[in-house]
TrEMBL record:
Entries under PANTHER family matching the protein: LECITHIN-CHOLESTEROL ACYLTRANSFERASE-RELATED
Protein name per UniProt: Lecithin:cholesterol acyltransferase family protein
Annotated organism of origin: Leishmania donovani
Compositionally biased residues, Low complexity: 12-25
GO molecular function ontology, one term from the record: O-acyltransferase activity
Keyword vocabulary terms for this entry: Acyltransferase, Membrane, Transferase, Transmembrane, Transmembrane helix
Gene Ontology biological process terms in this record: lipid metabolic process
Length: 756
């Protein structure tokens, strides 16, 4: 096997040749090897090269043979598949593979001049079609970048573009084998021939593709749509009048991952080793961080994990939540999250003075987010400002984990100011909320896995574990206190068999939490242990709201999609790995279980009972607020092409529902006060609307009504009877601010405060 260090410097030699310096010429008669396709290998008898050798000897020039492509590391495996040597005359160094089988003639110079590009091997002129096909699909010239600088003639074969590419790739902190492959890809994609083929294919795609296909592909990323609800809302529900006297200000609480996080400071050695890396304000899933995931995944995990003992920031890294609308509209460029909600609200007149986004570090539990960043103060101040500025109570919209955060804030505010929610919040819109937890949190804390990684094939799983080990995955998960806050809770019957041990024992919510506690203790995550101890104290309590008779709660969620509801475990086959005793049992399959993951109805992420119980049960939020509306969205892909990556305007998936047209229209009806008008004036609720463009007449409703597709009510009545007997505990005000941080900013001592 060749010295890998020497092969690793191939790009460096190519990059250093920018000035055109020539190295020593190869020995006379020296034969080099080059990499070709199997079908293009030369014959071993060497007869085809006799004329070339004779011609080169006549010209008294040492034969030069091109070798492997740039940055190819030759190993023993490569040697097994190495093609026979081929000699190439420097009189015409740009030799294509198509000419390798042409018979040699005396006088090499005449042979090369006589075979014109427009002629076939027999000397007959080629047709235009044959010439075009040869140009498009014929193999391009070989370039021996390893030895291309042995002489001025060989050096001329390397273009300036290839030199620049080599210099750029050489500066990247990548393994040598990755540099070789990267150069091959870049060099291939920058060829004019490839550009022509891609252009032709693009033209054919637009010309031949069925009508609407390209629109569906583009629709996956488009936000500024011509038929979006915000553009037709005034015509449909306000008789074309743009004045909305009942319009409420809006506060948005994003969910897990959907709020952008930024690196403000890092001193990790692995990050400093990156020559181009600048850690300041780099987003968690920005371009540089995606590159870091691919090149050094452990460095990325270390950067965004929390301290194992405190659950707060690491000593060497500081990560904070971005702020503003730009922090929630897109997850990565092109993948919209809240962008469609924002643009539709803007269509009916909303702006930064009537709409706000309260972002937070979603890695933290709500309590820790307030402890470190004062998050609850931020939410309270935003609500007060918007209510005072707009002279209306606000609409709070949360999604996913944002529901857990919103419930924690409402509880915190009620304990300090009785009636805060009733006075400041007209509507609480819960979109796909995890009010009673989500199974993914349990699997992430216990295994470092979820359905997405447990369902992949064995070979792919091995590659994934090699890229990011299971220990590294659950090490990251256990450092995030938010996952403990999202553990299943509230009702054991709603989570039957959440975890099934190798001996067949089924554990519910409490048993699973205790199992996770033991694993956190085993791995040294002390804060995880403390968080679960606190969680176990209230695990059986229903997540109630404050008493707010003037507040309406709207539950909007998708159904008809499988969501994770339980997991089968097995002992780790690697008995030497005592740190990871359990792994997912991917061999379990039955009616509702695949690869050891038990599924139930839901929105592809959150099970139905977590989405709907507090909205539908008699001891749910109906005991707390004046009105509860439940609106289910049945997942449908009708009218959308399979090429639409986001499911189209009727998708009910956990994140894609934020672009569901009907859901957006309901949010507009609530925020604009149209729903309020329908409640106060039932006689004006239903009305007929005629579309001026199509002439179709339909019956619309101003008020948002219940709509149920699933059998959630039957399940609650028949399977969750013990849950229905639970009390919806009221939120009691705190007795004293002695141990509270409410007045810490004033610097006032306890005795002086008590005298007030």
């Amino acid at each position: 096997m060749k010295d890998t260090k020497g092969s690793g410097n191939k790009v460096a030699r190519a990059a250093s040749s920018a000035a055109g310096s020539a190295a020593s010429s190869p020995r006379k008669g020296q034969v080099r090897y080059r990499r070709t396709l199997q079908g293009q290998r030369a014959e071993t008898d060497g007869k085809s090269s006799e004329g070339v050798v004779a011609a080169t000897q006549a010209r008294r020039v040492a034969p030069v043979v091109q070798s492997a492509a740039l940055m190819h590391i030759e190993t023993s495996i490569d040697a097994m598949h190495r093609p026979p040597p081929v000699e190439v005359s420097p009189s015409n160094p740009r030799v294509s593979a198509a000419r390798r089988y042409a018979p040699s003639v005396a006088g090499g110079q005449h042979h090369h001049r006589g075979q014109h590009k427009g002629l076939s091997a027999s000397g007959q002129p080629k047709s235009r079609w044959m010439r075009l096909r040869s140009f498009m699909f014929g193999r391009e010239e070989f370039v021996d970048f390893d030895n291309a600088f042995a002489s001025p003639t060989d050096s001329a074969k390397v273009t300036d573009s290839q030199r620049r590419t080599a210099r750029m790739i050489e500066r990247l902190p990548l393994p040598s084998w990755m540099k070789h492959n990267l150069f091959d890809v870049v060099d291939f994609l920058t060829r004019r021939r490839v550009h022509l083929v891609v252009l032709i294919l693009a033209v054919l795609m637009f010309v031949i593709a069925p009508e609407g296909v390209m629109e569906d592909v583009a629709g996956s990323f488009t936000v500024d749509e011509d038929a979006r609800p915000g553009l037709t809302f005034f015509k449909k529900y306000n008789r074309g009048d743009t004045y909305l006297p009942r319009r409420h200000p809006v506060v948005i609480m994003p969910g897990f991952i959907t709020g952008a996080l930024e690196v403000w400071e890092t001193s990790l050695p692995c990050a400093r080793q990156k020559s181009f890396f600048s850690g300041f304000r780099q987003r968690m899933f920005g371009p540089q961080m995606i590159y870091l995931i691919l090149s050094d995944p452990q460095c990325w995990l270390d950067m965004f994990s929390m301290n194992k003992k405190t659950g707060m920031d690491r000593d060497d890294t500081k990560v904070r939540a971005d702020s503003g609308f730009a922090s929630v509209d897109y997850f990565v460029p092109g993948y919209w999250v809240w962008a469609k909600v924002l643009i539709n609200l803007a269509d009916i007149g909303y702006d930064p003075q009537s709409m706000a986004v309260v972002t937070y570090d979603w890695r933290l539990s709500p309590g820790k987010a307030h402890e470190r960043d004062g998050f609850f103060y931020q939410v309270r101040n935003s609500l007060r400002f918007l209510c005072q500025k707009n002279r209306k109570r606000a609409v709070v919209i949360s999604h996913s984990y944002g529901a857990t955060v919103a419930l924690a804030f409402f509880r915190w505010a009620e304990q300090r100011e009785s009636g805060f929610m009733d006075r400041h919040v007209a509507y609480y819109v819960n979109v796909g909320g995890v009010a009673m937890g989500v199974g993914k949190a349990a699997s992430a804390l216990l295994l470092g896995d979820a359905r997405d990684t447990l369902n992949i094939q064995w070979a792919a799983r091995k590659m994934f574990d090699t890229f990011i080990s299971q220990e590294a995955r659950y090490g990251l998960s256990r450092s995030w206190s938010c996952l403990v806050s999202m553990l299943p809770r509230g009702c054991e019957e709603a989570w039957p068999g959440l975890t099934v041990l190798p001996n067949g024992t089924a554990l519910g919510t409490r048993g699973t939490a205790e199992l996770i506690r033991g694993e956190c203790q085993r791995s040294g995550h002390e804060d995880c242990v403390r968080q679960i101890d606190s969680f176990l104290e209230t695990i059986d309590d229903l997540p109630s709201l404050p008493q707010a008779p003037n507040t309406t709660v709207a539950c909007l969620y998708g159904v008809g999609l499988p969501a994770e509801a339980g997991y089968y475990l097995m002992w780790n086959p690697d008995e030497a790995n005592i740190e990871t005793p359990y792994v997912g049992n991917s061999s379990v399959f039955n009616n509702n279980t695949s690869h050891g993951v038990r599924m139930s109805d839901g929105d592809d992420t959150v099970p139905l009972m977590s989405l709907a119980y507090m909205c539908r049960a008699v001891n749910g939020w109906r005991r707390n607020v004046g009105r509860v509306v439940t609106r289910e969205f049945n997942h449908s892909v009708s009218g959308a092409s399979s090429l639409n990556l986001r499911g189209g305007k009727l998708s009910a998936k956990h994140v894609d529902i934020l672009g569901n047209y009907e859901m957006l229209e309901i949010i507009l009806k609530i925020a604009s006060g149209i729903d309020e008008e329908g409640v106060e004036k039932p006689e004006n609720d239903e009305f007929n609307y005629t579309n001026a463009d199509t002439g179709e007449t339909s019956t619309l409703q101003r008020r948002v009504h219940d709509r149920i597709y699933s059998d959630v009510d039957f399940i609650i009545r028949s399977n969750l009877r013990s849950c229905l007997r639970k009390k919806n505990k009221p939120i009691k005000p705190i007795e004293s601010y002695e141990d509270d941080d409410e007045f810490a900013w004033s610097g006032t001592s306890k005795s002086s405060w008590q005298q007030r």
